[in-house]
Amino acid sequence: MTTTVPLFKEFNGTVKDLTIAGSVKGTGDLGALASTSSGFCAYNVQNTATVSGSDNVGGLVGNVSGSITLYNCAVPFRAVRVSGGLWDTVPKALPTIA
């Protein structure tokens, strides 16, 4: 499926057992899961979607300003323009990856 918006505009919570596929095409602050987040936790999240945009493009979230915790996540990320693998804007705290 191709869409111009992620699943959530802003996501601040926990997501479990989710697979995202297809493509997301838009502008700034763009990811397959969310545009922005002040912090999130992801368990068993797989993203194979291609994400493309103009600025702050990330595999899961475009712009993260808080803490991130990841458990058993896979984001073989393909992006167009300014991009980061899981998120583009660097969070204030380093992510916890388990």
How would you describe this structure in keywords?
globular; single chain; mainly beta; 0% helix; 6-stranded parallel sheet; 98 residues; 4-stranded parallel sheet
Account of the 3D structure:
The protein is an all-beta fold and 98 residues long. Strands 2, 3, 5, 8, 11 and 12 form a six-stranded parallel β-sheet that branches. It has a four-stranded parallel β-sheet with strand order 1-4-6-9, with no helix packed on it. A two-stranded parallel sheet has the order 7-10. 39% of the residues are buried. It is built from no helices and twelve strands.
Q: How would you summarize what this structure contains?
A:
The chain has strands spanning 2-3, 8-10, 14-20, 23-25, 34-47, 50-52, 57-58, 61-71, 78-80, 83-84, 87-89, 96-97. It is an all-beta fold and 98 residues long.
